[in-house]
Write a structure and sequence with these properties.
The complex is a heterodimer of chains A (179) and B (552). Chain A has nine helices and no strands. Chain A has 179 residues and is an all-alpha fold. Chain A has one domain. The longest helix of chain A is centred in the middle third of the chain and has 18 residues. Chain B is α/β, with parallel strands linked by helices. Chain B contains twelve helices and 17 strands. Classes of the chains: A mainly alpha (179), B alpha/beta (552). Chains A and B meet through helix 7, helix 8 and helix 9 of A and helix 2, helix 6, helix 9 and helix 10 of B.
């Protein structure tokens, strides 16, 4: 049962999703949320640092579906139904996306990666990872930290390596002799 | 807000429709000249406290631009096709208009831009014409715009620039790493890089503070009031006269005329969708290259059955597009391009059309980075990069701070078949017809973009990029067009143009149109400086005409 740890993790997580009073789900039920989160966690995995799961992407998606992306609810319903159908076809013994092994989840995504729904889910996952934390995702700015985006209201030059070189040349004592 | 409030029953001197890059300038000029002015703006009146660094709100959602949910736009490639809802065009929709959220590039036209037909000759399948004015006619107004609004740049740095009567009022902005790499590479290739002229303050100016390099210019409103939008420059001056009322959330549906064929004012929907008629002695439409022709086409009457000021049949035709190509490069060390304004260096070496290339066209190339975090992860990586998974994640994480973009801004040929019309079926939230865009490239537009893209790649190679890529090259990738030009073209012949050399319509003596719709050619994009110079000039002319009693 290679999938067992994943099942436990998913269930535990689904439980946290339901139980956490700080961030209740507003749109999705806990089971659907766990399924969507399993996909999001393959789109931006937690390898080499926090991924979609740690950034709280599922909370972003949940809130988006009752706010600016409310028009996408139907697309999620039909899209997830197609994902489940595809899962049953590929892995007849399985019960949920969340309980598949990582390798199985990747196989499943490869089977749907050209669909409009996957592009929508990918877009929302990225927005939930790198968008403004006020939308419920990018918790603790983990997405921004991962890419090296140090969000502040002001910066002083030099900004990067190459303009710093110029600044150094200009500041050098004999710079007046330079051509 | 310090402006006056006029009762809607009062006949004001001037009604200005659209409070954007042009409308703000016109309102200020007319109010300062002593006229009573009402400005109708379809969008809200926002302030710097209303803005934020919210990428989702301003780049994925239409935070400061036209919202297709309220005002659908339909698009078709040719007249033979059926138009489908697509956000093919985009414009700023608030007091200040596009000058609020634009990248703030502020290029003057070159002298050649005004008479390219004479220089280059006819282009098959296009309607390339000379402007009825020359650069020298606009030069004083370019200078006035630069000084009243606050433009940063370095006079004389671009050897291809037209003569200027004065230097820029402010020195250039600090160079970014993209600018340094671009400088080195273009000099190595024998080209002539120069600091970007921008409508952003490099130093305190006229009571506003200098830019703090936060990086959120393109698509965002400036919280620091350092971007020289009309909202923070001329509109406050207009209001201060006590003779100008800015009326936001007012969506004009028709310009009315009297039996003599003169404009009498406009009917608009207010915030609660009540219909109101505002009377005026003269009308300026500054609603942009799409909304201006749309309003004229909606303003049909027995006297003007094809729409107002449309005896030529040219209103809405010759739409020109925001053409250009993008190439990106990955570098060894961090550029941290998210800091600072988007563009700090560019070249105009390939600006002039050269018959030796075998096609009409040219452009400027700038070094920039106009991605924000999520947009970069979604659209900034090489097209062949993985779209999900750990390799995808590693890529956007390691590329974000080491990438720059070279963007070319290129010609768009005027073609009569590229149009703004009223969609016969789709309606907006107020029940008015949706804008229907019909547009396709001229073959020379495409040839120019492809040729320019090859130059961009050469520069990235000379800059030492470790990896170079470009985005797929298709019309769908150049949507929405943000530069809306050519739909009420300027000319001396009333049968071949909509407005005269002073932006006054040939058909209606007290009706002026000034915005991108006036453009006879698209130059090399970056239309804002020219839109504003035309606005200053048209307001000057209208002031003289009104004082002579020529408008009332």
């Amino acid at each position: 049962m290679a999938a067992w740890p994943a099942v436990v993790a998913a269930r535990e997580h689904a439980h946290t999703v339901v139980a956490s009073p700080a961030a209740p789900l507003e749109t999705l039920d806990a089971d659907t949320a766990a399924e969507i989160e399993a996909l999001a966690a393959q789109i931006i995995p937690s390898t080499g640092g926090p991924g979609a799961r740690e950034a709280g992407v599922i909370y972003f998606i949940d809130r988006a579906l009752s706010t600016f992306a409310a028009g996408d609810r139907a697309a999620y319903r039909t899209g997830m139904a197609e994902v489940q159908a595809k899962r049953k076809h590929l892995f007849p013994q399985s019960t949920t996306v969340a309980s598949l092994t990582g390798a199985q989840q990747m196989t499943l995504i490869r089977a749907i990666e050209t669909s409009n729904f996957f592009e929508l889910l990918r877009t929302h996952t990225v927005l939930g990872f790198l968008g403004n934390p006020s939308y419920g995702g990018n918790r603790g700015e983990v997405g921004w930290k991962q890419i090296g985006f140090d969000h502040r209201m002001m910066y002083q030059p030099p900004f990067g390596y190459y303009d710093a070189q110029i600044a150094q040349e200009t500041a050098a004592p004999n710079s007046g002799d330079r051509k | 807000m310090t402006g006056v409030t006029f009762p809607t029953t009062e006949t004001v001197d001037f009604l200005v429709i659209g409070a954007g890059a042009a409308g703000g300038v016109v309102a200020k000029e007319l109010a300062v000249a002593g006229f009573r002015v009402v400005v109708l703006e379809q969008g809200p009146y926002l302030r710097e406290r209303d803005y934020s660094h919210d990428e989702i709100k301003y780049t994925f959602e239409p935070g400061l631009t036209n919202d297709p949910k309220i005002q659908p736009v339909t698009y078709r490639r040719s007249e033979a096709d059926r138009a489908a809802p697509v956000k093919a065009i985009e414009y700023g929709r608030q007091v200040g208009g596009g000058s609020v959220h634009f990248t703030a590039n502020y290029w003057r036209f070159h002298e050649s831009d005004f008479h390219e037909r004479s220089l280059f000759g006819e282009v098959a399948g296009a309607d390339l014409r000379d402007w009825p004015i020359a650069y020298a006619d606009l030069e004083p107004y370019y200078t006035k715009a630069e000084y009243e609004l606050g433009i940063s740049g370095l006079a004389g740095a671009n050897p291809f620039d037209a003569p200027r009567s004065k230097p820029y009022p402010l020195p250039p902005m600090p160079v970014k790493s993209s600018g340094v790499l671009f400088d080195r590479a273009t000099k190595k290739l024998g080209l002539h890089p120069f600091p970007a002229p921008v409508a952003i303050l490099s130093q305190p100016y006229q009571g506003r503070g200098a830019c703090v390099n936060c990086g959120f210019c393109e698509s965002f409103g400036c919280e620091m009031r350092a971007k020289s939008s009309t909202l923070v420059t001329v509109i406050p001056l207009a209001e201060k006269t006590g003779r100008c009322e800015i009326r936001p959330d007012c969506y004009v549906r028709k310009i009315e005329t009297d039996g003599a064929g003169r404009a009498t004012g406009a009917v608009y929907f207010d915030r609660s969708r009540r219909e109101i008629f505002q009377r005026a002695k003269a009308v300026f439409v500054c609603a942009n290259g799409v909304e201006t022709p749309k309003l004229l086409l909606m303003s049909k009457s027995r006297r003007f059955p094809e729409g107002l000021a449309n005896s030529s049949g040219l209103v809405g035709t010759h739409l020109m597009w925001d053409n250009g190509a993008e190439a990106q490069g990955l570098f060894e060390h961090p550029l941290n391009e998210y800091k600072g304004i988007q563009v700090t260096r560019l070249i105009h070496d390939y600006y002039a059309a050269d018959p030796k290339r075998g096609f009409y066209g040219g452009g400027g190339i700038d070094a920039r980075f106009d991605f924000y975090p999520a947009g970069f992860a979604l659209h900034g990586l090489p097209p062949e990069a993985p779209k999900w998974g750990s390799e995808y994640k590693t890529m956007f994480e390691t590329y974000f701070n080491r990438t720059m973009l070279l963007m070319s801004h290129t010609t768009s040929l005027a073609q009569a078949k590229n149009t703004i019309t009223l969609d016969p079926e789709v309606k907006d939230a107020c029940g008015l017809p949706a804008v229907r865009v019909t547009f396709d490239y001229h073959p020379d537009d495409l040839a120019t973009m492809k040729w320019m893209l090859a130059r961009q790649v050469e520069i990235l190679e000379a800059a030492g990029a470790q990896r170079i890529w470009s985005q797929p090259f298709d019309l769908a990738d150049n949507m929405p067009s943000r530069h809306l030009m050519g739909t009420c073209r300027m000319g001396t012949d009333p049968a071949a143009s909509v407005v005269n050399a002073h932006s006054r319509t040939h058909d209606v003596p007290n009706l002026f149109l000034v915005d991108g719709s006036n453009f006879v050619t698209a130059a090399r994009q970056q239309p804002t400086a020219t839109i504003q110079a035309l606005a200053y000039r048209a307001a000057d002319y209208a002031t003289q005409a009104a004082k002579r009693g020529d408008l009332s």
